[in-house]
Amino acid sequence: MDAFTTPLLAGTATGALLLIAALGLALTFGQMGVINMAHGEFLMAGAYTTYLTQQVVTDTDLSILVALPAAFLVAGALGLVLEVAIIQWMYRRPLDTLLVTVGVSLLLQQLAKDVFGPQGDPVHTPGWLDGHVDVLGYHWPYRQMFTILLAVAALATLGALLKYTSYGRRIRATVQNRDLAETMGVSTRTVDRVTFFVGSGLAGIGGVAVSLISGTNPNRGTTYIISAFLVVVAGGLGQLKGTVIAAFTVGVVTAFFTDWFSSSMAQVLTFALVVVFLQLRPQGLFTLRTRGLA
Amino acid sequence: MFLSRSRLASGTALALAAALSLSACGGSKSGEASASASCVDTSGDTIKLGFLNSTSGAMAISEQTVRDSLSLATEQINAAGGILGKKIEPVVEDGASDPAVFAEKIQKLLTGDCVAAVFGGWTSASRKAMLPVVESDNGLLFYPVQYEGLEASKNIYYTGATTNQQIIPAMDFLKSKGVKTLFLAGSDYVFPRTANKIIKQYAAKLGIKIVGEEYVPLDDDDWTTQVAKIVAAKPDFVFNTINGSSNVGFIKAYYEQGLSPKTTPIISVSIAEEEAPAMGKDVTGQFAAWNYFESVKSPANAAFIKAFQDKYGADRPTSDPMEAAYTSLYLYKNLVEKADSFDVDKINGVADGVAFDAPEGKVTIDGENHHIAKTALIGRINSDNQFDVVWSSGKPIEPDPFLKGYAWWDPSAK
Amino acid sequence: MKQLQNWGRTWGPLLGIAVIAIALLVVAPAVLSPFRLNNLGKYVCWAIAGVGIGLAWGRGGMLVMGQGVFFGLGGYAMAMHLKLEAAMATGGPDAVPDFMVLYGDGTMPGWWAPFRSGAFTLAAIVMVPAVVAAVLGWAIFKRRVKGAYFAILTQALAVAFATLLVATIKQTGGFNGLNQFTVFFGYNLYDPTNKRMVYTIAATALVVCLVVVWQLYRSRFGELLVATRDAEERVRFLGHDPANVKLVAFVLAAVMVSVGGALFAPITGIISPSDVDATASILLIAGVALGGRALLLGPAVGALAVGFGRTTLSETFPDQWTYFLGLLFIVVVLFFPAGLGSVSSQVVGRLRTLLPTPRRTPIAAGTDALEVAP
After folding, report:
1. Based on the number of CB atoms within 10 Å of its own CB, is B411 exposed (0-12), middle (13-18) or buried (19 or more)?
2. Of A124, A132, A262, which has the smallest distance from its Cβ to B256's Cβ?
3. Could C187 and B412 be called an inter-chain contact, meaning their C-beta atoms sit closer than 8 Å?
4. What is the distance in angstroms between the CA of the first residue and the CA of the last residue of chain A?
5. Is A24's Cβ below 8 Å from some Cβ in B?
6. Is the CB of A91 less than 8 angstroms away from the CB of C359?
7. Residue B354 above 80 pLDDT?
8. Long-range contacts of the stretch A12-15 (C-beta < 8 A, 24+)
9. What is the ipTM of this complex?
10. CB interface of C with B, residues 285-324, below 8 Å
């Protein structure tokens, strides 16, 4: 039985992590057409924030709770700086945003290496996350459940934000028709900045979850960025629904492949499957048909 | 159809290119490569040595520590008068964690800077990339890291352990502990794969059953699924050949799923003093197989630790590869002074038996395979992230990179 | 005057190619030490790949973030042959590459066997990437996947390709890659004369690629390619199938990148996953972006410059190289989106506006809309 439960549960947790990383991308890529390759480094910034928080708040039971908002703010602030300094000059040039953020990502990696040292820093798991529950033979770590909860909470918050707040209405208006929104008095500049802040901040939250898996590491961002992008693309643009389904599917499928073959082959096969899927259905799972995005 | 306009122009251009290339293209098929005469300048009162370690890229984590101890040894040797009265003048290069860069940079060091010897490399990939260069230029490379063996070059001195000085003793130790079942966890690259090939064959002879074998890519850190398999297999011991930061994910997943050194201890071959505190988890009670621990009691080690911490800070631990790098520079000094020359062939001629009282104990060069005899140690991690030596081979083990002395070893087995 | 202009348009680029040819084939071998010449050879391989990338990206608007895959297909095909040659030179006609004995059980996978033949290897270097690119491109372009999607998709492929190589130690040497080549089509690779010959082949290949691309850009196809890049829908309305146009450019680019990889192996003496992964692919793109992706000579010169910069900067500032690379991307994309090669024309344009206008400024080349057909 554990041959089935292990990949399913572990994969769901991996999917949850992918989802947190991809939610931010879905916002900035799907809604603004910005391809932010430095998003992985924002994740990394979240992990480093967790480490730094533990240096200040030495009670590890508390520090993770402090680290969550802190990581959101740090990564969000980085995103805001990126938007103001660079991205705003190149909206509607998605390929250029891709290239320029590749440069930013390299800078941030080297910066992390110089500031924190090339050796990763340890992040201590709080006592209340250190343990597991036996589910049909799989010792399901609390940490994985926490990651899933985190993803669900992030998703719910974001969904509510988009649906019920005036800010959400403005975002949706801007996405659907930027020019029209502008003529209606929506400050699309502000909307862009807030969106970028929130999207990047979500990466910071993801970073907290990542740091619980393996501490900090200057190169860690690159591990997640491509999978997260594939999730967004496979899910379809402008729709959170697609991103959610794609994230959990990729997570679970990868886990089963890992179980059957090996980690390396799982990565190869999953990527290959997504590419094949996109060849068959280039618009992804769901498409939002709008004049603005066509 | 596309190329309809102006055939003339392209024809001219191609002819031009062809003519140019033919004029310059005169390969010579005959003859052996004439080893270029050494350009090492031994006339001055300094001697150039190349330090080639990755200070950028993924391996910088580890290789910087080697660079630090090479710098320490340089200072000490220079303060004591240098090698054959010549001060060492280090030429440092970054291998950038990229084998192709290692190949390029060692050629630069040997033929451009004309260094007398090069110290460095960490991954097997980097060593394999440097090997043909150092052989064709007839240079010298000192490689300071334990590795998977099955190699010997007259132009390389291996000052880390080969498999019969680390992997095989570790198995002897497991046997002495009465281990019946073993789980193999490693990174997906050459060292773990080769080490596990040896482990599996030796385990069969020792009567230890291998109950699982899992690999994860070097840059991956999520070991949850694999650790679940360890939980299910319930082995007596886990043999860990994971390299680098992937260890952190492995150790975290291991404790999270309720494993502990009481029931399922781990023996590692790449977790040392440097790595143990970086796990974010108390790893007290786990084991590691090395040839040097900071806790080794010897006057040479006490002096080494003191000098290192005076230079780099009291919080800096010393570890096996650092010690092996430190030792390599001193061994080079002894080699040169015995040969009374910086010439590679003369050094190789006198290499057999050259020894050094290293921090790990006395080490001696094997003139045949250019590895060094080392004592194998097993340490158990204590609460200070230091290793208590719990087992020792007692005396230095002669290096046997091709495992010729081990009848059970069949390199062509599946 | 008009005639002179026409003459310049026809022969000016050729003059540029000739200058590069003379610099690489005559001047460089005369003044550079064997070591530096070999380094230059490495940059030349990147430049060959750069020419291909310029064709696909600059003229065709297809940014491929995973050109490392094609670089690797060529590089590994060549390396497999060299590995077998080296084995056969010491162990007879049935000899097996050393690493298969070290890490495997000493048997060789069947798909290695044809690479004993030099002719097969050369054909594979051209055909394998062409077929892969055709299959990949056909499905993608027919379905009108564009721009960002395509870039990300191909980058994922590069990651998967490198991971696959690392995971198949017994078949491809894994993380260590393939190395220790001694013989190159019968010529001893340790002989400096022969190393120079390999360099000359690479430099010639670059010149040939430049000439081919120059001819292509002058042809109707070249115009159609640019038209497709700038207004795919209009090209479609005019009765052409943009997918075919893009496919031809994409396949041709893949072959060039593969040739670059194939020559990279004997010149550097090694090919490993780190030469073909996502990071390596990004380095390939860096040179093209720097030199000017839509120009004829820009990609090649840019790739040479980035290669040279990588060596020099990492020799002088070993720790700061990554900063330079990162800044290069940012500065070039922000201020010289068409590359340094077109700075002069840009400066004129800039003088009119003085500052980069935020948002909605179309750039000179490769304006990609985020478009996916339903």
Report:
1. middle
2. A132
3. no
4. 47
5. no
6. yes
7. yes
8. A12/A144, A12/A148, A12/A248, A12/A251, A12/A252, A13/A144, A13/A145, A13/A147, A13/A148, A13/A251, A13/B224, A14/A251, A14/A252, A14/A254, A14/A255, A14/B222, A15/A247, A15/A248, A15/A249, A15/A250, A15/A251, A15/A252
9. 0.89
10. 311, 314-315, 318-319, 321-322
Closest CA to A51 of A119, A129, A102, A132: A119
Residue B29, SS3? coil
pLDDT tens-digit profile of B207-260?
Answer: 999 999 999 988 788 899 999 999 999 999 999 999 878 898 999 999 999 999
Closest to B181 in 3D by CA, of B237, B112, B127: B237
8 Å CB contact between B57 and B98: yes
| Residues from chain A contacting residue B228 (CB–CB below 8 Å) | 2, 6, 10, 138-139
d(C-alpha C145, C-alpha C134), whole Å: 15
Q: Any chain A CB within 8 A of the CB of C319?
A: yes
Structure-token pair, residue C35:
């070591």
Q: Is C145 in a helix, a strand, or coil?
A: strand
pLDDT tens-digit readout, B123-157: 888 999 999 899 988 999 999 999 999 999 999 99
Establish, for the pair of chains A and C, how many residue pairs have beta carbons separated by less than 8 Å.
Answer: 143
Task: Give whichever of B5-14, B34-43, C253-262 has the largest mean pLDDT.
Answer: C253-262
- Write the DSSP string, C56-72: IIIIT----TTTHHHHH
Q: What's the count of helices (H) and strands (E) in chain B, helices before strands? A: 11, 15
SS3 category, B72? helix
Q: Which of B224, C124, C102 is nearest to A9 (CA)?
A: B224
Contacts of B215 (CB under 8 A, 6+ apart): A262, A263, A264, B185, B186, B187, B188, B192, B193, C167
Does the beta-carbon distance from B228 to A139 stay under 8 Å?
yes
**Is the confidence at residue C368, as pLDDT, over 70?**
no
| Closest by Cβ to C315, choosing from B3, B93, B136 | B93
Which candidate in B6, B52, B189 is best for mutational testing of the C interface (most C CBs within 10 A)?
Answer: B189
Alpha helices in chain C (DSSP H): 2-22, 28-31, 34-53, 68-91, 98-103, 118-142, 147-167, 169-172, 192-218, 220-230, 232-237, 242-268, 278-291, 298-316, 321-335, 343-353
B58 neighbourhood in chain A, CB within 8 Å: 219
Hey, of A39, A93, A101, which one would you mutate to test binding to chain C, going by the most C CBs within 10 A of its CB?
A93
Of the listed ranges A87-101, C25-39, C280-294, C348-362, the least confidently predicted one is C348-362
**What part of B 3-42 touches C (C-beta under 8 Å)?**
3-6, 9-10, 12-14, 16-18, 20-21, 23-29, 31-34, 36
- Chains in contact with A, where contact means 3 or more Cβ–Cβ distances below 8 Å, are B, C
Locus of tokens 């260890």? B247
Q: Which of B321, B386, B273, B408 is nearest to B143 (CA)?
A: B321
The model carries a pTM of: 0.88
